[in-house]
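ARCHIVE CARD
CATEGORY: sequence design from structure
SOURCE FIELD: tokenized fold
FIELD CONTENT:
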């Protein structure tokens, strides 16, 4: 047998190769990620009401995983700030994410009313010339003044989102004397116009927090945030509220009910 065949045969009989080791590490990392996804779901839906996860050996048995895979999965959750390991106690839940629905048009206080009180810090407010993309989406003349509002929104005192809002000035001016610190803009718009909001176009993506957003949200610079762009219309179809909302990704989850239609 040629020497190269002997080497190949020997490797096939169990001698570890660099490629085989890399494959095993990749597979273990894949399994750890998959397990972390399952555990994360339980964490966020109250699956561990006592506030502590089962022992690693129990998790390994329940999910048919090795102890190393379980530890690696828990490390991933710890890096996300969801769990922590306490000596003599084990792995405990240390953070909570709040559910934000995507299947109903609601303000943040309306959406999260079951989880506490939403307050708004008005960081900037006043008329500004509409940038071309804003003017186009709000259907106002390019350069026309629109009302610009920047708010830091907190849930139970914790920074949750940084909202940048543009509204047509004929509607937005009436907001200047309103209690924006404690009231959703949606509620105010319906009250001031006497008309119901109808629908909204939304786009959701993950972006890295810029220095300003990170500082205001008290998040690490460069951390991933959920960016929700939403254009809200009155029931008659007129666009009245264009928002760019940056949510702390470690404090919010987005969800909705989708129906298949072909």
């Amino acid at each position: 047998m040629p020497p190269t065949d002997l080497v190949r045969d020997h490797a096939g009989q169990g001698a570890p190769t660099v490629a085989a080791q890399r494959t095993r590490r990749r597979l273990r990392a894949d399994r750890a990620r998959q397990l972390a996804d399952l555990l994360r779901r339980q964490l966020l839906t109250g699956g561990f009401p006592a506030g502590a996860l089962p022992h690693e050996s129990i998790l390994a048995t329940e999910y048919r995983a090795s102890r190393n895979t379980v530890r690696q999965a828990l490390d991933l959750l710890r890096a996300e700030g969801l769990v922590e390991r306490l000596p003599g106690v084990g792995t405990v839940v240390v953070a909570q994410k709040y559910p934000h629905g995507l299947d109903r048009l609601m303000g943040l206080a309306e959406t999260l009313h079951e989880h506490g009180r939403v307050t708004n810090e008005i960081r900037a407010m006043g008329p500004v010339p509409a940038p071309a993309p804003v003017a186009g989406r709000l259907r106002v003349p390019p350069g026309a003044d629109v009302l610009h509002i920047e708010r830091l929104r907190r849930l139970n005192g914790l920074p949750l989102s940084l909202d940048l809002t543009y509204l047509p000035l004929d509607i937005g001016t009436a907001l200047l004397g309103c209690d924006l610190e404690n009231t959703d803009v949606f509620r105010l718009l319906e009250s001031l116009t006497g008309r119901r909001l109808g629908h909204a176009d939304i786009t959701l993506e993950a972006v890295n927090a810029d220095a300003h957003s990170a500082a205001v949200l008290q998040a690490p610079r460069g951390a991933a945030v959920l960016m929700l762009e939403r254009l809200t219309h009155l029931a008659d179809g007129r666009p009245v509220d264009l928002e760019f909302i940056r949510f702390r990704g470690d404090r919010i989850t987005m969800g909705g009910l989708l129906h298949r239609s072909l």
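CARD ANNOTATION: The chain has nine helices and ten strands. Residues 3-12 have pLDDT under 50 and may be disordered.
SHELF: design records, drawer C
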